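Technical note accompanying the year-one report. For the benefit of new consortium partners, we illustrate the data format agreed upon in the data management plan: each record pairs a sequence with a structure-token string. No post-processing was applied to the example shown here.
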Amino acid sequence: MHRANWLAAGIVAGAVAVLAEIGGASLASPDHPAIEYTTRPTNDAVSQLNRKIENGQVQLKFEGVQGYLRAVLDALDIPVESQMVVFSKTSLEMHLISPRNPRTIFFNDRVAVGWVPHEPFVEVIADDPRQGVIFYTLDQKPAQRPVFIRHDDCLVCHESYSTLGVPGMQIRSVFTAPDGRQMRQFGDYTSDHRSPFGERWGGWFVTGKQVPMRHLGNATVKGPDNQEPTAGNPTMGSIQVDLDSGSYLSPHSDIVALMVFDHQVQMINLLTRVGWETRFALYDHPELTERLLRDDSRDLVDYLMFIDEAPLGGKIEGSSGFAEKFAARGPRDHQGRSLREFDLERRMMRYPCSYMIYSEAFDGLPVEAKQAIYKRMWEILSGEEKDRRYARLSLADRQAIVAILRDTKPDLPDYFQAVTR
């Protein structure tokens, strides 16, 4: 039942077709001298925070059952409203996780933090603008200068087909037994903004004031553990979100936060993949770079501009205030418009171009990769691209996106000043 990720298949297969001509080192080996994932110094948000702690600029306060959690969120500028809650046993601390003691995840554009009550550390995934995602833990023991420790052993799970073959994040939707165990006989799904809502959030709690679509969240599988797979999804029984206010920072697992995270995880993996492939090609065979980027930029831009986004089933409204916090971060054009504004009736974003175009992951791409991406974006936004797949972007959409980018993206090529047709 595992859902095939056609974008992952496309970008990986396209790269293989080009880079197979190179031979030698593997497609995007972490140890290749153009990458040096395990040895090159990092400049992600956590390594920066480590340096601030070491020189005394930042002190992390240890508090009660949550330990360093709130201090870490504050230091990394991650809103509590971003909290998402997982009750399936699908992560490192699976022996602790259950519907009664679920795991929480918090995030912003650069970092994701994971924590479950009684866990001996706080887990952090940070996106380095060159290297991609880096994995850390912070021991839950009071210390004058606590230190985040890097863990490359996380790549055992976090470097796979579902992460596009590079160190990355993944969101899984699984069928879960009442005690939180994954019922593997029913398969699972990998989620992003293209996934049908009927396949999303298995093993997750979902909260919202308005949630019109059916999904797999807030439910466990009914029946015996050894039941045989059926043609469709198994029979599910609902469970209630009940987060002890003494243990958890928030009672919410906001549907809007879940939707944004679905989008962001795959966007980061794509940016990492394209960055690695470009550096790999430039290092060994620069003559193949243009051909490689012609294919990769099409796939990345389609995702960046929500071309295959799953339709919404009606008006969505979150419960935690995440949407307001997220939208307020801007940046905004001279008319006050932002790529972080939500629609949440027809589609997720009001202006269908990802806010991740402002991210350090995007800005850290090789110049050649950004040039190819901008060129492909302009083909679509200018109206030059006539394929019917892009008809979902109206003239008003394209004009608004171009105008916002002109005001807010400093390195935008000059041809973005031309008229959008």
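Partners are asked to follow this layout when depositing records. The chain is about 30% helix and 10% strand.
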